[in-house]
Write a structure and sequence with these properties.
2 copies of one chain form a homodimer. The radius of gyration of chain A is 17 Å and the shape is globular. In chain A, the strands form 2 sheets. A 4-stranded parallel β-sheet of chain A has the order 2-1-3-4, with helices on both faces. A two-stranded antiparallel ribbon of chain A has the order 5-6. In chain A, 39% of the residues lie in helices and 12% in strands. The longest helix of chain A has 15 residues, at 48-62. Chain A is of the alpha/beta class. The model of chain A has no long low-confidence stretch (mean pLDDT 96). Chain A has 2 domains: 2-103 and 141-182, 3-Layer(aba) Sandwich (Rossmann fold), CATH 3.40.50; 104-137, no CATH class. The first copy, chain A, has helices spanning 15-28, 48-62, 80-91, 106-113, 141-150, 169-182; strands at residues 2-6, 32-34, 65-69, 95-99, 117-118, 124-125. At the A-B interface, helix 2, helix 3 and helix 5 of A face helix 2, helix 3 and helix 5 of B.
Chain lengths: 187, 187
Amino acid sequence: MKIYLAGPDVFLPDAVEIGRRKAAICARRGLTGLFPLDNAVDLTAPDASLAIFKGNEAMMDAAEAIIANLTPFRGPSADAGTVYELGYMAGRGKICFAYSNDPTIYAERVARSFAVTKAERGHLIDRDALTVEDFGLPDNLMMIHTLDLRGAKLVTPRQAPADIWHDLTAFEACVALAANRAAGTSS
Amino acid sequence: MKIYLAGPDVFLPDAVEIGRRKAAICARRGLTGLFPLDNAVDLTAPDASLAIFKGNEAMMDAAEAIIANLTPFRGPSADAGTVYELGYMAGRGKICFAYSNDPTIYAERVARSFAVTKAERGHLIDRDALTVEDFGLPDNLMMIHTLDLRGAKLVTPRQAPADIWHDLTAFEACVALAANRAAGTSS
C-alpha cells in the first residue's frame, strides 16, 4: 500500500530527514510512504510553486491512503496545505488517517489565543463574534468526521510530546492502522 | 448549476442572512447556491457534528462547483473546514472558485503575527524555524493552484473592505465567473 505522507513536516529545517524517518517506519510495516519532498523541484524556477502542486497531486493520485499530520500550525487549526490534501484524498475515495501531537480540543485552543466569551444564546464566540465550534472535537468537524468514516479516528497522544514536530509516536500508530487495513483486518 | 457555498460565514452571528444574500446573488445569475445552514440539524443532539458533516458532504456531492470564502480565519490561512471542502471538491473533479477579502500575500501575513526572520540559506522562517512559504501567493500553494487549474484564480479585492465578513463584492465576482462557466463561455 502506497501512503501519501502529508503534513507541515515539509517546512521543518530537517524536513528531508523527517521524511526519511517516516518512510522507514512505513517500510518496516511493508508499506510505501510517499513524502512530498521526494519530488525533485527546482525552487529557483519561476513556476516552482506550480511544480510542487503538480508533484504533490501526482503523488496523491498514486497513493491509496493518506496519513496527515494535523498538529496545529500557526493558529488553532491544522496546516492549510495538509487540510486541503486530506480533503482531496477524501474526495478521491482514498483511505484517510491522521494524527495530531496536540490532544487539546479545538474550543480550548481557540480560548488560549482569542478572547472567547459566551454569546447571549449560550454558544462560544470569539472577539469578532464568530462562533467557536464546540463539539468537544480536536479540530474542525469536517476533518474529524471524514477520518472516522474513511479510515480511523484522529490519533492523538494523551499529552503533547516535548517536541511536537519530531515525535513520531502518533504517526507510528497511524502506520499500524494502515498496515492492518492493508492486511485486510479491521482495526 | 448548483454551487456549494463554503466559508466561515456559517460562524457569523448573522450567518443565515449571509447565506440568503449569497443564494440571492447566485439566483440573479441563474445559479443555485447551496449554503450549509440550509441543512436542518438539531444542534442539541449528541451526534450534531456528524449530522452537519453528512449534510455538508451530501450538498457538496450534489453541487457541480464550489465557491469558497478563503478570507483568513483565526490565523494567517483560511478556515480549516473550508479548505477541507475545497480539497474534497477538487478531488471529486468539481469546478473550484474562491475569494479572499484579504489581498495580502501569505508571507506578509505570517510576518505580522509571528517573528519571521531569514534563515542562513536565505529563506524565511518563523520562530520555530519552520519555513514560511514565500512564493508571492495569498495562501498555501495547494489551494491557490487548484483554483488556477480547476476554476479561476483566487479573487481578491485591491484592498481589504471595511467589513471583511460581510462585503460580498469578491463573492459576486466569483458568481460571475461561475455563471460564465455555466453558460459555456471561458472567462
